[in-house]
Specification:
The protein has two helices and five strands; from the N terminus they run H-H-E-E-E-E-E. The chain is an alpha+beta fold and 130 residues long.
Length: 130
């Protein structure tokens, strides 16, 4: 079966699939997500394309809040879901690992670098969804 989606929805599905949020789809018989326009892209490019479509654009040097939704300790990066919408890639601080998964964070936007620099880790789970 093929389902046609808006560009933003297709990109978000690819992001959610990448960060492992779509495991529940297996119970419905969905085996994989394929997009002829986007599946050849790396996650950095998919995140950038998705963020271009967000109502609240990224502003360099602005402090924001978000939640860590993905950690890749082997490659030293994670992904934050911005409270204002969109997703950012960030470099893992030395020795912090997956302890931050699901946590609120404050961060500065750094458009000229990988995406975000974490300033502060929260101690409680965030209550908004990815």
């Amino acid at each position: 079966m093929t389902i046609e989606l808006k560009k933003k929805d297709a990109l978000e599905l690819l992001i959610l699939n990448f960060i492992g949020k779509l495991n529940k789809l297996n119970s419905y018989g969905v085996l994989d997500i394929f997009s002829s326009d986007y599946t050849h892209m790396k996650i950095d490019d998919i995140l950038n394309e998705y963020n271009k479509l967000e109502k609240n654009p990224l502003i360099d040097g602005k402090r924001e809040e978000g939640k860590i939704v993905f950690i890749d300790e082997n490659n030293g990066y994670g992904i934050i879901h911005r409270k204002l919408g969109g997703y950012l890639k960030f470099i893992l601080p030395e020795g912090r690992g997956a302890r931050g998964l699901g946590r609120k964070v404050s961060f500065d936007i750094e458009l000229n670098k990988i995406g975000a620099h974490i300033i502060d880790r929260g101690k409680s789970q965030n209550d908004w969804n990815t």
